[in-house]
């Protein structure tokens, strides 16, 4: 079955939305197969956000994402990659519809509550970045 990698970002943790967000994933039928709380290092963030590392806003993302510990979650289910992205809504929380996670809990472009892998291939890469194989219970 397909898996994806989700990060409950520092704004999600600071605003105490972790439980509500995980509840939405579970209510949508997805299963948690791995989870832990970690502080993201510069090194990990540089590889995770390599596709935006040359953008002028990158230093702000790095400071934000390392500002407090996050929860990384491995989720499993049918079509989980696309379905979780649908539950999140668009990257900019201000453009996200009510009823989506970013529309309900997000505040802006950077503080958008949750990261989720955007393809099956990236899900594999990102799961391997954050979890050892014996930390996934699938
Ligand atoms: N113009 C911007 N200003 C500030 N932060 C931005 C901007 N564009 C993107 N970001 C931040 O960088 C992250 C990665 O951007 P990307 O384009 O990959 O969006 P995404 O795939 O929806 O987000 P994520 O990878 O976190 O799920 C976004 O989630 C957001 O936090």
From TrEMBL:
Family recorded in the similarity comment: Belongs to the NDK family.
Alphabetized SMART domains for the sequence: NDK
Catalytic residues in the record: 115 (pros-phosphohistidine intermediate)
Top-level enzyme category: transferase
Organism for this UniProt entry: Rariglobus hedericola
Gene3D superfamilies to which the protein is assigned, alphabetical: Nucleoside diphosphate kinase-like domain (3.30.70.141)
Cofactors required: Mg(2+)
PANTHER family: NUCLEOSIDE DIPHOSPHATE KINASE
Domain Nucleoside diphosphate kinase-like residues, every copy: 1-138
Superkingdom of origin organism: Bacteria
SUPFAM superfamilies: Nucleoside diphosphate kinase, NDK
Any one GO molecular-function label of the UniProt entry: metal ion binding
Protein name listed in UniProt: Nucleoside diphosphate kinase
Keyword ATP-binding carried by entry: yes
Higher taxonomy: Bacteria, Pseudomonadati, Verrucomicrobiota, Opitutia, Opitutales
Binding residue positions for ATP: 9, 57, 85, 91, 102, 112
NCBIfam families, sorted: PRK00668.1
One GO biological process term: UTP biosynthetic process
Keywords: ATP-binding, Kinase, Magnesium, Metal-binding, Nucleotide metabolism, Nucleotide-binding, Phosphoprotein, Transferase
CDD domains, sorted: NDPk_I
EC number(s) on file: 2.7.4.6
